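Hi R.,

Here's the chain you asked about this morning:
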Amino acid sequence: MASPPEQIAHALLAKALAVSATGSDGRTIAPKGGRTGEGGPIPETPFVEIGDAGWELEYVGSANAYDRDEARARYAVIFYRQFAKETDREKEDLRELFWAFRAALRADYTLGGLVDYAHVGRARVGLTPREGKWYWFLIAEVEAVFLAS
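And here is the predicted structure, written out as tokens:
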């Protein structure tokens, strides 16, 4: 069985791949693919990657003689859009995907009962080179809290 952090990463990927939004010109915006882990080629955009951003464990006691920790796992949910000199439209795509993802997460903050809660804590936008091409990216930092035994 996969570890809780791995299960959460896959749940976040499924949620991110399921979102869609409508651009100001009426076109549908949705990820065309994604993966857990970061790096490597991006086949087509919009694309999403789920990366690890760290964990914190805090001892919260024991139940039935088992030690229990509260885990706070952080993930980087990264949406990419290839830079093609349509800056306003490209950035709009990322903003729309972010808000659709945030709404989907708020509608199921337990990721189907996998965690106590998950939420977006912050987001940022930038431009980065990958594999000889330039991409806009929007990183949504997601924190997931759950009891680990």
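One quick note: The beta strands are 21-22, 28-29, 34-36, 47-63, 66-82, 117-130, 133-148.

Cheers,
M.
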